Amino acid sequence: MTRFVHHCVDKALHIAGRGRAPKRLIATDDRCRMDVAALEEAIKRDVADGVRPWMVVASAGTIDTGSVDPIDRIADVCARHGVWFHVDGAYGGLFALCDEGRDKLRGIERADSVALDPHKTLFLPYGTGATLIRDGNLLLHAFTATAEYITPLGESEVGPSPADLSPELTRHFRGLRMWLPLQLAGIAAFRAAQQEKLGLARYFHARLSELPDFDAGPPPDLSVVAFRYVPDNGDADTATERLLQHLLQEGRVMLSGTRIDGQFHIRCAILSFRTHVEHVDEAIEALQRGVAALNG
User: Fold this and answer.
1) Is the pTM of this model over 0.70?
2) Which residues, 6+ apart, have CB-to-CB distance to 216 below 8 Å?
3) Is the dihedral of CA 32, 35, 41, 47 positive or negative?
């Protein structure tokens, strides 16, 4: 994994009792994507030192920048070395439904496991996260447990009990939140909305690139643009943070902040089905008003 991987990976390792296992942060390129050559070198070095690499975590859209690791090439490396390949697609993995997203996420179908959050890229209510495992028998092996007081009355016709596929026993019917909108609206509506968000991110990046004193960063892989306000005078980190504070106090648009390699950035994450081009234009106007107010 890279330094841009979501912090939940560390938390999951601790929960699984692997918190103290050796962990390698793989170098990235100038667009914050995993360097595949560095990954292969790290695996070979560990093997030579007697350390068995057991999992590689790639990001299908990082939280900071929306960058997509070269998934297909990483899958090649994992296949060569017999390493479990996990893709964190919680934010961006479901963009594979639309044509443009599928191209950018090529290779995600080769993963051994994929984390997905339909409450993000399918615009659904919070709490509809999911994990896909290539070999479902591994879930049965990991989570199956029984007792006399929960012995089923008969064999199920729809497959294993959900209680044998995850840590939970009793659970909410979360799948209804995903099934019902897909039945009512159809998959085409979701694909169209996803395609629009990808286009809006490119549009925001293009418009921001035209404004003076802004560093728009690299073109977005998905629907997140991380950028900086870099005036001729003064510290760029301070100026960018002050600009974000002004935007939040004004209350017209909601952007967030992050630090990438120590530098403060503003994040524009376009991921609401209600967000359209006029709202992106409003965000650009809010940035211009903010700059004018700071320099006034």
Assistant:
1) yes
2) 205, 208, 209, 225, 227
3) positive
pLDDT of residue 113: 97
Distance CA 276, CA 199 (A): 10
- pLDDT class for 164, splitting at 50, 70, 90? confident
- Sheet strand arrangement including 130-133: 55-59, 84-89, 113-116, 130-133
DSSP character for 164? G
pLDDT 10s digits, 244-281: 999 999 999 999 999 999 999 999 999 999 999 999 99
For residues 16-30, give the mean pLDDT.
Answer: 91
Burial of 125 (0-12, 13-18, 19+ CB in 10 A): exposed
Q: Give the single-character DSSP code of 253.
A: S
Q: Are 44 and 26 in contact (CB under 8 A)?
A: no
101 closest CA partner among 93, 91, 113: 93
Q: 179: which residues sit within 8 A by CB, 6+ positions away?
A: none
Residues in contact with 225: Cβ distance below 8 Å, sequence separation at least 6, in sequence order: 66, 201, 204, 205, 208, 216, 217, 267, 268, 270
Radius of gyration (C-alpha) of the chain in whole angstroms: 22
Tallying the residues shown for the chain, one arrives at: 296
Maximum CA extent, the chain: 75
User: Angle at which helices 187-209 and 175-185 pack, to 10 degrees?
Assistant: 90
